[in-house]
Design brief:
Layout lengths: L2 H31 L32 H5 L13 H4 L14 H11 L14 H13 L19 E3 L13 E3 L1 H5 L2 H8 L3 H20 L8 H14 L9 E2 L6 E2 L2 H4 L3 H9 L1 H21 L1
Antiparallel strand pairs: 1-2, 3-4
Length: 298
């Protein structure tokens, strides 16, 4: 065969080889350019394998690992829990009605007065109303003995005659106060001394609703009894025992002060003078303590 006849077949073979090479090259490029997806094998029937060995609590015979016990969270101490006493509701004292309050008042007074025998000086009938009426009248300068919370002294007022002169008429006779008249108030002054003023003021706040009710019965719904009580206390504290003579005259059955200035005082001030200077000073000291505690509570 001549060389011209073999050329076409040679070129055909070369062409096939080139196509195969190009095909292989394109296939290789395609495989390299496609992203690889890693498939995670899924195990259905086989259980997961735990590499770390399981730790079981120690048995009775085995020693307890201290690190295991100390690593547990500590339980809160029982002392931090509220006690039963803190959870109990507060007991509020029940105040009786005004008409049935006498026995309750007597029980309270017995708790704040350490000399129990002095309680006999108090009238145990309608005690709150008596107190309210007496204080209201005293603040206005009058004394209503029919509403006094105290029983009357066992002895009566007495005076000593200074000058006896038959030539003088009855209006000119001069008298002076008898010290025995001061002594008849000694037990009442002791009653003031025997009061626990701190507890008395606290008890007054507890008693106040009944006092306000009794005071409203007098026709003063818009007036506060606290102001009236304060006025009564101030009236006693401001009273000065007169320096001049407290001589008396007796133009009629009743005695009168010889001094017009003293005679012009109201009945409440005259009552304080009849108590006597020493007794008045004791009452003032007790009322001063009560007044300070009342003002501190407001």
């Amino acid at each position: 065969m001549s060389s011209d006849e073999t050329k076409p077949s040679s070129w055909a073979l070369v062409t096939v080889i080139i196509v195969i090479v190009i095909g292989v090259f394109l296939a290789w490029k395609f495989l390299l350019s496609e992203p690889k997806v890693e498939e995670t094998p899924v195990v259905i029937d086989e259980p997961a394998v735990i590499e770390a060995p399981l730790e079981f609590p120690p048995t009775i015979d085995e020693p307890i690992d201290e690190s295991f016990t100390t690593s547990l969270p500590e339980e809160p101490a029982q002392t931090e829990m509220p006690t039963q006493e803190l959870l109990e509701p507060e007991i509020i004292p029940i105040t009786p009605i005004l008409d049935d309050s006498d026995s309750w008042v007597q029980e309270k007074l017995s708790a704040i007065i350490w000399r129990k025998e002095l309680l006999e000086l108090l009238i145990d009938d309608d005690m709150i109303r008596r107190f309210v009426v007496f204080v209201d009248n005293f603040a206005q300068g009058s004394v209503v003995y029919s509403h006094s919370p105290f029983v009357k002294p066992t002895s009566s007022f007495s005076a000593k005659q200074e000058l006896v002169d038959n030539t003088l008429n009855k209006e000119s006779q001069i008298f002076e106060l008898d010290e025995a008249s001061f002594k008849r108030f000694a037990l009442y002054v002791d009653l003031f001394r025997a009061v626990d003023t701190e507890t008395l003021v606290e008890w007054y706040q507890e008693l106040r609703p009944l006092i306000v009710q009794a005071y409203s019965e007098l026709g003063y719904p818009d007036k506060q009894f606290d102001e009236v009580l304060q006025a009564s206390i101030t009236k006693v504290l401001d009273l000065e025992f007169p320096k001049e003579s407290t001589e008396l005259i007796r133009p009629s059955v009743m005695y009168q002060y010889k001094s017009p200035e003293i005679e012009a005082l109201d009945d409440a001030d005259k009552l304080m003078l009849r108590i006597g200077k020493d007794n008045l000073l004791v009452i003032k000291s007790v009322l001063l303590e009560i007044n300070e505690k009342l003002n501190k509570g407001n």
